[in-house]
Every structure is written in structure tokens, then in C-alpha cells.
Amino acid sequence: MIISMKRHATQAEIDEVAQRIEEFGYKIHTIQGEERVVIGAVGVGDVSACLEALEALPQVEKAVRISAPYKFVSREFKRDKTAIRVGQSVQVGGEEFVVMAGPCSVESEKQILESAELAAKGGAKVLRGGAFKPRTSPYDFQGMEEEGLRLLAKAREVTGLAIVTEVMSDADAAMVTEYADILQVGARNMQNFALLKALGKCGKPVLLKRGLSSTIKELLMSAEYIVAHGNPDVILCERGIRTFETATRNTCDISAVPVLRELTHLPVILDPSHATGKRSLVPALSRAGVAIGADGLIVEIHPNPAKAISDGAQSLDPALWFGMMRDLQPYMALWKQARQAESVATAH
Ligand code: PEP
Ligand code: MN
After folding, report:
1. In this predicted structure, what is the pLDDT of residue 194?
2. Which of 52, 190, 233, 340, by CA, is between 20 and 30 Å from 184?
3. Which of 73, 82, 84 has its CA nearest to residue 2?
4. 3-state secondary structure of 32
């Protein structure tokens, strides 16, 4: 249920409503809008009786049922898009298209510092790099772990870029939270519910990647786990899904971007690198991402992809990276105009 309070409702009146909802067995989640307070209520109870009781209160403007199984992340719950602050000066889901770039894995101090400089010079605002790597084979490089996190923090210090890095287990959540500005949940962990619950309490934004064979509804239910456990700052990421097609590493479900925009207020970014597995295809998909209205991109780049320990084939070399960012400029300018027009329209 969503309960919109009347404009000038006092705190005591809001508390009275909250208490009534809790008496019906629901948990509440309050958002302070610009004009009014909206209370979200979730749980199992007698919805009709609760709605009736609330509508009888004079301080309640409207009480409605949310039909989507994911409540807090749904558009029904919050009509306006959510913009998420990352680090000191970046916002994902706002009026800037945000590019995140960096190597698949943190490999050495030299490699991550060089990558960070390339990322910043190309116009990225966030540096990616895995310190904990989910690898299909247990014999492949598993990541530099805490040493990798320290190197990412050093790269942030040098370049001013924010850091996004993967957390694979709830046991590592506290450690990764200490270093990262955004905690990434990889495709293989999208339904690791213990991890999702832990990230509900981490206090930093989460980048939730769509699972290899997950539906959009399942992605949103996973986002709901994080939000319901206390963290509203979730960025969704389409990174390609598994189909019968073998020409690309995964099949990029580009329509997931506008579908998600209809269903949720959370920001959505596109990962053209894991979606294709092939560097020559990354610029075209990146353009598609900007054109279709994603809030940003997460792209793999490497100072020397031939030497990369993981995902070299899909990593852009410096020339391709700079060329792609230059070619994206006119698309990003149009994106910005469209976004500004939209926020003017929603303000009216
Ligand atoms: C990655 O970002 O390097 C990664 C492993 O991505 P995904 O979880 O989407 O496969
Ligand atoms: Mn990778």
C-alpha cells in the first residue's frame, strides 16, 4: 500500500497513521517528498480493512494498493526517478549520463593506476575493477582481494574517480564497504539473498547486475530485497542474458532499459562489455545505451588488453576507448536535452 498524507500533515498526525498501519501487521517505510510525506506499507495483512481504516483518517489524502510484487522499487510507489549520489560529486539517475570504466580485474598497482588515468581522461566518472572475481573455473585468477581494494582506493586518491567493485559474499560486505563507493553484485550473485540482505545494511549504493538467466521481474525482486532491508540506493544493470545465440558472449536485452524505466524509479545502466564479449561491438552497443535512455554505462578498458588476466577480448584498448567516448559526445548531448525536457515535464 501507499499512503499519501495531506500536504500540511503534522508529525503527530503522520505518527498516528504509521501506528495504525503497524497495528494491521505491516512494516512501514516513509519518504519525505517535496510536498508531502508518503508512507509505503508492506507485509501480509488485511489490505482492504487497512485501506478503509486509513482513508477514514482526515490527515490521509489517499491510500492505494500496490499491485506489483516488488513494492518499494516500483513506479507505483514512487513516480519520480531516483537519482543516487555516489562518492563526493557523482549522481547516477540524474541529469548527467555517467560512464564507469576500468579493467575487469585489478591486476597490479601499475595496471590499475594506468587504467584509472585512461578512464578519467576519457570522461568516466567512476572507476571499475574487480578485487573479488567470480570465475567459471576455480583454477582461474580469483582476484587480489583486500590488496586490490587498497589499490582501487589509491587510484581514487590519485584521480578523484569514485570506485565500483564487486562483493561476492556477505562475509566480505563490511570490508568492501570500507573501500568502495558502489558495491557491485555480479550476475552470478543476483539471487544470493544473504548477500542482498547484508547490502541492505551497508550504507553505500549498490550496482545490481541482472542474472545470466533472470527475468526482469526477478531482477526487481532482488533489488526489492536490498531496499526492503534498508538501502534505497540501488542501480540496476543490464549486462546481457543467456540465449541460444553464440555470436556474442551474451544477448543484450536492450529493451530491458525502457521496460525497467516503466516498472521502476531506480536508475538503469548498460554493460556493453559483458553483453557482447567482443571489443569491436562495444561502441555500437554503448551508443544504443545512450539512445535508449539508460542512465549510464559500465565499460571494460585496459591499458594493454592482450595482457589482461580476465576479459581481455572485450576490453577496449586506449585508442578505442578514447575514440568511443569522442563519438558518444553528440549522443550524450541529445540525451541531456531529452532528460532536461523530461524533468521540466514532470515538474508540471
Ligand atoms: C564483471 O563486471 O567483471 C563481471 C564479472 O560481470 P557479470 O557479473 O555481469 O558477469
Ligand atoms: Mn569482466
Report:
1. 98
2. 340
3. 73
4. strand
Backbone angles phi, psi at 129, to 5 degrees: 165, 125
pLDDT value of position 348? 67
> What residues line ligand 1, using a CB cutoff of 6 Å?
104, 130, 134, 186-188, 209, 239, 271, 274
What strand order describes the sheet that includes 60-64? 27-32, 37-42, 2-5, 60-64
Rounded Cα gap, residues 348 and 337, in angstroms: 17
Maximum Cα–Cα distance across the chain: 68
- What integer pLDDT is reported at residue 159 of this predicted model? 98
What pLDDT is attached to residue 168?
A: 98
Cα separation, 259 vs 257, in Å, equals 5
Task: Give, as residue ranges, everything with CB less than 5 Å from ion ligand 2.
Answer: 104, 311
pLDDT at position 97 is 98
- Residue 45 has a pLDDT of 84
314: closest CA among 299, 324, 332? 299
Per-residue three-class SS string for 209-236: ECCCCCCHHHHHHHHHHHHHCCCCCEEE
CA angle 82, 191, 93 (to 5 degrees): 15
Which pTM value belongs to this model?
Answer: 0.93
Give the three-state DSSP class for 162.
Answer: strand
187 Cα to the center of ligand 1, angstroms: 6
pLDDT at 31: 80
Placement of cell 539512445 in the chain: 291
Query: What residues are paired with 41 via a beta bridge?
Result: 28
Residues of the chain with pLDDT under 70: 348
Atom of ligand 1 nearest to the CA of 187: 8
Residue of the nearest CA to atom 9 in ligand 1?
187
Report how far residue 287's alpha carbon sits from residue 153's, in angstroms, rounded to the nearest whole number. Answer: 30
